[in-house]
Amino acid sequence: MSNTLSADARALLFTEARTANLFTDKQVDLDLLRELYDLMKWGPTSMNSCPVRLCFLTTEEAKKRIMPALFDGNIARVQSAPIVAVLGHDMEFFEYLPKLFPHAPENKKIFENNETAAQINAFRNSTLQGAYFIIAARALGLDCGPMSGFDNARVDQEFFAGTHVKSNFLCTLGYSDASRNFDRGPRFEFEEVCQVL
Amino acid sequence: MSNTLSADARALLFTEARTANLFTDKQVDLDLLRELYDLMKWGPTSMNSCPVRLCFLTTEEAKKRIMPALFDGNIARVQSAPIVAVLGHDMEFFEYLPKLFPHAPENKKIFENNETAAQINAFRNSTLQGAYFIIAARALGLDCGPMSGFDNARVDQEFFAGTHVKSNFLCTLGYSDASRNFDRGPRFEFEEVCQVL
User: Residue B187: its chain A contacts at CB < 8 A?
Assistant: First the structure.
């Protein structure tokens, strides 16, 4: 195992990677979804709590169910995507801590008795896992378009009714039409957002 | 640029990577902090809002300032780390949208007039950036130990007083003593947390 990532690999994941807007009609091999999960799942979460829950919309019929919840600016993006992933978190993730964090199963009680702590942990850690998802998708050669412009309550009702899962964000997956990407936005310089003490 | 990440690179970032517990005394070249930021900054955020703010504690004197805010289980970890990063988010990130998202500068108003939306956006997107930070650190050969077991209000007072920045989580950085890592926790199987519709 090499100690650092090559320039090529940095380009694939970060320096040259771009958020997808619209997609080509190249389909996504459904085996890649499993490969994607089997890569992202190794990213660290607090107490290995792994609160993310995923719902992959892979058919036109499934995609139709999410359309009414989208903000206008995201409709064409979702329509053009071969796959749309709904990323959510299980608000009762702590029920699984005895399995996932076997050396301190009693930590379940920290969250069982403190709804605010549970909410913060679920949101923070499912979002970390959402970023691992984005990076893992790029690692597999997929382009992705993460988006939070939608009605969360409506998505929860449609896809997570009767569960303790709440939606976090959506992510389109496929092979983007690079000619339809937006210009890349500027980033802050190190000095603008970093202090060294 | 290759289309997919090699098995070696997947190992470095995901499949073989491990959260650091205690560190060797090998120091971290401070130029790496800049390299780390210049890699992670390219990860996508909503409306390119880039709300993360970073404070790197690189001296014993700086590290001493965070000690009183730590939960007991994290004291030895922080003490042994050559660098501790405090990751926070600027609750007034939207002030910079006209610069960062120049094709829709009016989006600033969405958040200016809706504190809840601003809080959710700041937390979600700084957390995505926190995960990019973890992956970028690994890409540079660093080991990291993310942790949320600390008193956020106390850290905010110590490092972000007089600003609109709120702490999110901490991350130790260095070269870990692999013999002191915890056993790797189990992960959910695909079928346990993923639906395909």
Answer: 41-42, 48, 50, 100
Number of structural domains (chain A) is 1
Q: What is the pLDDT of residues B138-174, one digit of tens each?
A: 999 999 999 999 999 999 999 999 999 999 999 999 9
- In this complex, which of B12, B19, B59 lies closest to A44 when CB atoms are compared? B19
Question: Does residue B116 sit within a domain?
Answer: yes
Residues of A with Cβ-Cβ distance to B138 under 8 angstroms: 5
What are the pLDDT digits (tens) for B6-57? 999 999 999 999 999 999 999 999 999 999 999 999 999 999 999 999 999 9
CATH code for the domain in which residue A45 is found: 3.40.109.10
Question: CB-CB: which of B55, B101, B197 is closest to A185?
Answer: B101
Q: What is the pLDDT of residues B113-135, one digit of tens each?
A: 999 999 999 999 999 999 999 99
Residue numbers of the domain that contains A90: 18-177
HEC sequence for B156-185: HHHHCCCCCEEEEEEEEEECECHHHCCCCC
Helices (H), chain B: 7-10, 31-40, 60-66, 75-80, 97-100, 108-112, 115-139, 152-159, 190-193
Does B110 contact chain A (CB < 8 Å)? no
Q: Cβ of A128 and B130 within 8 Å?
A: yes
Residue numbers in B near A148 (CB within 8 A): 46, 121, 124
**A50 vs A121: CA distance, rounded Å:** 10
